[in-house]
Amino acid sequence: MIYSLLACCKLNEAEPMSWLTHILKKFRKSINDIENLLPQKP
User: One digit per residue, pLDDT tens: the chain, 42 residues?
Assistant: First the structure.
């Protein structure tokens, strides 16, 4: 699972550690809004 997340970050040119930190902060607020947690570019 972690490998998949890192690969997704790489495909979307996102920094994995920054993305993970951002997601963990947002995850505490809204677990039901999964689309906003994915590392896809708008």
Answer: 788 888 888 898 989 999 888 878 877 666 566 676 676 755
CA atoms of 34 and 18, how far apart (whole Å): 18
Q: 0.70 exceeded by the pTM?
A: no
Helix (H, G, I), strand (E, B) or coil at 39: coil
Cα 12 → chain centroid: 10
CA angle (28, 41, 5) in 5-degree steps: 55
Helices and strands, counts by H and E, the chain: 2, 0
